[in-house]
Design a protein that fits this description.
The structure holds two protein chains of two kinds. Chain A is mainly β. Chain A contains no helices and ten strands. In chain A, the strands form two sheets. In chain A, strands 1, 3, 4, 8, 9 and 10 form a six-stranded mixed sheet that branches. Chain B is mostly beta strands. Chain B contains no helices and eleven strands. In chain B, the strands form two sheets. In chain B, strands 2, 4, 5, 6, 9, 10 and 11 form a seven-stranded mixed sheet that branches. Chain B has a four-stranded antiparallel sheet with strand order 1-3-8-7, with no helix packed on it. Chain B starts with a strand and ends with a strand. The relative contact order of chain B is 0.33. Classes of the chains: A mainly beta, B mainly beta. At the A-B interface, strand 3, strand 4 and strand 8 of A face strand 4, strand 5, strand 9 and strand 10 of B.
């Protein structure tokens, strides 16, 4: 499994764009890159997933360069409610249905007024 | 739909006691998982069930057993609780389809303290 490295913590202010970068130098050909968000006392929640280039949904964008050795989660115009831990995961859904994913320590994002 | 429901939400045990954490999902998902999360850490996979009738070990299975009772329910049992098993336990489920994102849907967690 590809190991991921992301900053332990980040600080931002309301209305700013936040970019969290994750490095995954050993990513395999079949691996996808997935980001989850976790609020205190809750289970993680899926944010976005991508394989290459750029993916955008209603809450975030995911930028993946051609070599796929890193990825950047972009949160536009953050608010206080975006304060959470963000996990970058690299893995694949095995054909048997097992999501072979490793959750690291994540990045603690604090959004200030 | 309730999604993924875990019971109990809180439990305090003494060393050596046994207990079962219950998990049920109403999304007709094939795969279910049990994770534990220690303070300030990420989640670690204990056991998973790719489909009804099958279970397999994850990263940290020692001290735990599981039962996939039916498609909806996946329970986690601690036969002889130890203080090292103090943690928050999360149950999750996912659809198993080719090309699917494999999105995991998590429950609210069960906070277990072993004294």
């Amino acid at each position: 499994l590809a190991k991921t490295t992301q900053p332990i913590s980040m600080d931002s202010y309301e209305g700013q764009e936040v970019n969290i970068t994750c490095s995954h130098n050993n990513i395999a050909t079949n691996d996808y890159i997935t980001w989850y968000q976790q609020f205190p006392s809750q289970g993680p929640r899926f944010i976005i997933q991508g394989y290459k280039t750029k993916v955008t949904n209603e809450v975030a964008s995911l930028f993946i360069p051609a070599d796929r050795k890193s990825s950047t989660l972009s949160l536009p115009r953050v608010s206080l409610s975006d304060t959470a831990v963000y996990y970058c995961l690299v893995g694949t859904q095995i054909s048997g249905g097992y999501n072979k994913l490793i959750f690291g320590a994540g990045t603690r994002l604090a959004v200030h007024p | 739909n309730a999604g993924v429901t875990q019971t109990p939400k809180f439990q305090v045990l003494k060393t050596g006691q046994s207990m079962t954490l219950q998990c049920a999902q109403d999304m007709n998902h094939n795969s279910m998982y049990w994770y534990r999360q220690d303070p300030g850490m990420g989640l670690r996979l204990i056991y998973y069930s790719a489909s009804e009738g099958t279970t397999d070990k994850g990263e940290v299975p020692n001290g735990y057993n599981v039962s996939r009772l039916n498609k909806r329910e996946f329970s986690l049992r601690l036969e002889s609780a130890a203080p090292s098993q103090t943690s928050v336990y999360f149950c999750a489920s996912s659809v198993r389809l080719a090309g699917d994102t494999g999105e995991l849907f998590f429950g609210e967690g069960s906070r277990l303290t072993v004294l």
